[in-house]
Amino acid sequence: xxxxxxxxxxxxxxxxxxxxxxxxxxxxxxxxxxxxxxxxxxxxxxxxxxxxxxxxxxxxxxxxxxxxxxxxxxxxxxxxxxxxxxxxxxxxxxxxxxxxxxxxxxxxxxxxxxxxxxxxxxxxxxxxxxxxxxxxxxxxxxxxxxxxxxxxxxxxxxxxxxxxxxxxxxxxxxxxxxxxxxxxxxxxxxxxxxxxxxxxxxxxxxxxxxxxxxxxxxxxxxxxxxxxxxxxxxxxxxxxxxxxxxxxxxxxxxxxxxxxxxxxxxxxxxxxxxxxxxxxxxxxxxxxxxxxxxxxxxxxxxxxxxxxxxxxxxxxxxxxxxxxxxxxxxxxxxxxxxxxxxxxxxxxxxxxxxxxxxxxxxxxxxxxxxxxxxxxxxxxxxxxxxxxxxxxxxxxxxxxxxxxxxxxxxxxxxxxxxxxxxxxxxxxxxxxxxxxxxxxxxxxxxxxxxxxxxxxxxxxxxxxxxxxxxxxxxxxxxxxxxxxxxxxxxxxxxxxxxxxxxxxxxxxxxxxxxxxxxxxxxxxxxxxxxxxxxxxxxxxxxxxxxxxxxxxxxxxxxxxxxxxxxxxxxxxxxxxxxxxxxxxxxxxxxxxxxxxxxxxxxxxxxxxxxxxxxxxxxxxxxxxxxxxxxxxxxxxxxxxxxxxxxxxxxxxxxxxxxxxxxxxxxxxxxxxxxxxxxxxxxxxxxxxxxxxxxxxxxxxxxxxxxxxxxxxxxxxxxxxxxxxxxxxxxxxxxxxxxxxxxxxxxxxxxxxxxxxxxxxxxxxxxxxxxxxxxxxxxxxxxxxxxxxxxxxxxxxxxxxxxxxxxxxxxxxxxxxxxxxxxxxxxxxxxxxxxxxxxxxxxxxxxxxxxxxxxxxxxxxxxxxxxxxxxxxxxxxxxxxxxxxxxxxxxxxxxxxxxxxxxxxxxxxxxxxxxxxxxxxxxxxxxxxxxxxxxxxxxxxxxxxxxxxxxxxx
Length: 953
Hints:
- The chain has 953 residues and is an alpha+beta fold.
- Helix content is 33%, strand content 15%.
- It has 32 helices and 32 strands.
- The strands form six sheets. Strands 20, 21, 25, 26, 27, 28, 29, 30, 31 and 32 form a ten-stranded antiparallel β-sheet that branches. Strands 5, 6, 10, 11, 12, 13 and 16 form a seven-stranded mixed β-sheet that branches.
- The longest helix is centred in the last third of the chain and has 26 residues, at 635-660.
């Protein structure tokens, strides 16, 4: 029988240093010659490529790892799998895959830090001998084609559905929240009956869905508590090893998962450590080197650490009434990159179990709470036993590339809402005296390599943002007053895309994490001047601490700033009591946890990777939506069925997408296996499947393409252009066209014409631009035209402060004239540089100006986009009044002429460096005549709000 074309690439040569698979030795050498690769070395140091040897049979018999899922020929179904696995291993090394373009990405990132900014040699040290890979594993696509219906999918990829169109309709119906009656009603429509569907009822559709390849399967078990409950207790759960394997082999994570602990330094001198992901911290390094108190003397050489992250919290699933609660348990891997794991659409967290929420029959609520805690740990003990065994003796698992790795599963992160002797009241009384909740057998007690001092993390969503609302903001409301603080928030002009508080904040109900963040952006500027300086200093110190703790990367200098901010709060916290902001002591548990943030960063990396934002969102998608799509009976069983069905649809859709993207017949005569061909990383990735990541539009790349003439249909001059620090995008069509005099009248800019002349004169003479208001050009200076095109919106994009290779989402800036909606116009502010390039933001505001955009235009007959701006004088905090010093904020004053007119000039639009946000300096009491529309135009002094984003300068 002729061999069939494989729908995926078999990599048949190995890197001698990291064990990655490649189609031939040429690609191995290309991989090792990359400067950013940790496998790079002088050619005379490179040994001949060899195939890593799997564990010997004697070693396997000695260790006896449980749950070792290795493929065997008997498991494979269909010619594709049987043809490959029936071949001798040496023959597989010579297998050439036809008609498949090879994806030359760095497939295994455990030997290179994630992200574009890869440290150079000397800045990173990897744990020697960690995470070896072995041949014989299986990929996600292997499992798809080797299930019981794999042979039928050789002829019909979308079996058990008739075609791709049939599957698309089925997938939409299965993933919708329609009831079976609604689906039957939909399928009974005459128009739908004319479609060639393989199903005609909801029941038939559900039966076909059961034939789809399955992920981790659900199980249920009745639990018999030691004390009576109002209802029977049933635990729904999935095998945690299967869930870990599902995450580990997920194609989405192929280029975003790491396995080797590493130490990273900021310089080659190795003086200052850098911490970001879990694998860069001391905890992962020490675990890899640790000795086990169980069967193994130490973690065997080549063992792979899979950091288990658990998240558990109760959530309400009833609507309006019912008081029904669910207690989901979610599982993830700390090896997955934080920016990928934090995106709910990428399924980086799996629903592992639905824990029971029992109603114990006991007259004392504290005893009922103790019994619930005890049952919580008992259920976790039952569910997580396989992970404890794997942490003891290891388990063979497949990585995303089809390699086998010998894995250990310590618990490294647990985000829980809360955590025996028969004498419950007496035992609880003694436990409370020690500050304990009375659970004497926690689920982690027999979990090897797991320490609650390490895996119980500081969790930003609750410990940072929720704490700020519960304490800092409430102190500010108490000191400033409800009405005053609400009025000040009402006067703010918030940037496009940011939350506004037109009704104030003192009476907010059901405040979300997004609200917590939004209030933090403005609170210091709002209360500055209305509260005593030492109170402001204490609030500022906590705010600085929380913002610094959200950094994605830390070095020793950043950790020193973090500790200094916390020390500054403790130095000034007495002012909060003195002003009546808080009437009691500061024995606040979340405040106590702040002193553990810096040590936690050193051991486990950046705190934001442990945030519960994504798991809170998963409660909606994985629990609430499925529960509300049912009939309000047997919630847990219906949630489990819904999640299982959705998971099958997702996996099937992903697999068919990958398989369909493979073209076995290239259009031209080019050899797809050409050794000189270097496919583009991003294009090769997109050929395999569509990732649901919402990508940020990169205006820097667009500007570069337009500058190089790649797009021939783009308007001239290009509407997207960039400097080294900032990219600017304008709409293709201008919003208005008029003469200079008409624009001067509409935008209230009496010196617009003279300012334009002066700008052209400076450009012609190569003079740096400033905003002094002095006119150098003669009134007889000839302009190219008297007509201009006007834009009322500008999109400005800057690079990421911590990684210049990444870009931030573009910020829309308003430059709108007076209108009925905005009687005084709507004008945003920005940082400008005198020249075309600058060192922003490395030196802060030094050598830069802050100005308000009043007009964005292009004069007909020219290729340059210009902007009329009005300048502010910038006064640093140390050189102004007490409230400015305590707040650490710059004060901005409008630059005015002696006759009271504002000072303005015309600058090239390309001199913008970054948007900024200003808040009026209200003083002790805000002017009651101000409104949202007039607060910026009638105010002369402003705070430069450096808490508008997380890039503290």
